[in-house]
Amino acid sequence: MPRIDFEIKLGYEDVLFRPKRSTLASRSDVTLEREIRFRNSGLKYRGVPVMAANMDTTGTFSIARAFSPHKMFVCIHKHYSVQQWVEFAANNPDCIEHVAVSSGSSAKDMEKLKDIVAQVPINFICLDVANGYSEHFVEFVKKVRAAYPEKTIIAGNVVTGEMVEELILAGADIVKVGIGPGSVCTTRKKTGVGYPQLSAVLECADAAHGLGGHIVADGGCTCPGDVAKAFGAGADFVMLGGMFAGHEEGDGEIVEKDGQKFVKFYGMSSATAMDKHSGGVANYRTSEGKTVLLPYKGSIEDTIQDILGGVRSCCTYVGAVKLKELPKRTTFVRTTKQLNEIYGKKSINKTD
């Protein structure tokens, strides 16, 4: 019979970090790079564990080129052709260690994945479906692990510890955590399904780390402080879509309106995305994403610096010399209000 879980679950907007005594003299003393060895592939990765989502206006080759000097990661969207992948790898060999090839779970997706992996020396595979709870998806993860024992597999999305454990035991190294928190995701509205993101990250990180696995907090971040909260809650990686959208490197459609430039940004389960990539919304489903126009932001470099600078500053407030130490130094306090909005959201600086 139906039941209600009365334990309160929280989102990023419900908490703040409590500051603690720190020995750090400067934000520049904080190390954001992490070295991670993965449970199932056995591979080691070193980089800054902030990821661009595998959406077709953020998970692009152009963003991968911009991220590479910062050692940040991009899950490349699945709509590039095999030839485009080959050309990108040939022209940008330094980027390859910081990108993943993305795939769905259909037989057609598997064939394309095989073609790309056969021709591109890539170490990461991102298996991305909206509902990571299906038995079909678990079996697909097992199939990909059997085919590529030496590749690091990212798989999701889920929001509960038991499913994180099942995907790790099926072969995933990193589990994507998040159902419905994204800025252009309407899954919670259309289906009533979801889980507050901070609690999901806390619980799923605990489950993954108990097995020697890892998680990526996917969705729900609206500002650098939210990225820091995700890391503080135990996320090994944090994936961002909306915060990286609207930039030149996203290769999105630019629209001019009243003399101002905008970029079209949409969820990958939106009608816009399905019209573009699947010939429309199938008659057995509904759109679970929305389409918005974002003010054109130009180069992504300022946004990168804003996010990384915010996380570094958070570490200095709680005394974490390394990003890896942030969860150990984290105490969250519940709050009913975070910001002083007397001047609204108006600022002369685009990253404020």
Q: Sheet with the most strands?
A: 8 strands, parallel, barrel
How many DSSP helices?
10
Query: How are the strands of the biggest sheet laid out side by side?
Result: 4-5-6-7-8-9-10-11
Question: N-to-C SSE series?
Answer: EEEEHEHEHEHEHEHHEHEEEHEHE
- Overall residue-averaged pLDDT value: 95
Cα-based radius of gyration, to the nearest Å: 20 Å
Q: How many extended strands?
A: 15
Which stretches are poorly predicted, pLDDT < 50 over at least 5 residues?
A: none
Architecture overview:
With 352 residues, this protein is α/β, with parallel strands linked by helices. 30% of the residues lie in helices and 19% in strands. The protein is built from ten helices and 15 strands. The protein has helices at 61-67, 82-91, 107-119, 135-147, 161-170, 187-191, 197-210, 224-232, 271-277, 301-318, and strands spanning 15-17, 34-37, 44-47, 50-52, 73-76, 99-103, 124-128, 152-158, 174-177, 214-218, 237-240, 254-257, 260-266, 291-295, 332-334. Strand 12 and strand 13 form a beta hairpin. The longest helix has 18 residues, at 301-318. The chain is globular, with a radius of gyration of 20 Å. The mean pLDDT is 95.
